[in-house]
Amino acid sequence: MILISEVLNTYFPKLAEMPELKNELISISKLVDIKAGTVILKQGEYVKVIPLLISGLAKVFKEEPVNGNEVLLYYIKPGESCVMSLTTLVRQQKSHVKAIIEEDASILIIPANEALKIAKKYPKWNAFIYDLFNLKFDELLSVIEILTFSNKGTRLLEYLKKEARLKKTNTLQTTHQHIAYDLGSSREVISRLLKKLEVEGFIKLGQGNITLYSS
Q: What is the pTM of this model?
């Protein structure tokens, strides 16, 4: 059985540096396993828990209010949390984003009301949030740059490269529809762009998979 103290030491060492904070986190949190495809935060709802990811992968999306399309904003990796959940909780606002589990994950769950209490008591917790905000802000700038200044083919290739880095493989098990969902596009557009990238020698399309060639 995995101990929460071991989880904090391994994945969140900065939070474990202060004994008082570490002990309080152990007392208020619990470990849960969540299957891929599970929505852990809905857009338009209040934050109920703060997730600290231990394994797996999660994605955070922004839903467009008019047509319902969703655009991938950033990833949550082991050793991270959802910075939008943290900042929204502090402001006591409804969430402006949606978070979903991409790969089966183990998560340390902290109740929202308890997270607010420790934010008032421990500078280390707030430093953790600040560092995470800076990290995800850089990711968001990258997304904005690609959306604003890049053509759709470049954006798609950058997305595939990032997926490959995160999943540590050159062959992604995915579908055209799944990619379209992540990028807020249509399956037809993504299929056309993927075929173009294949002709240009960047990728090889398979049945339910895409292999990236080393650049």
A: 0.76
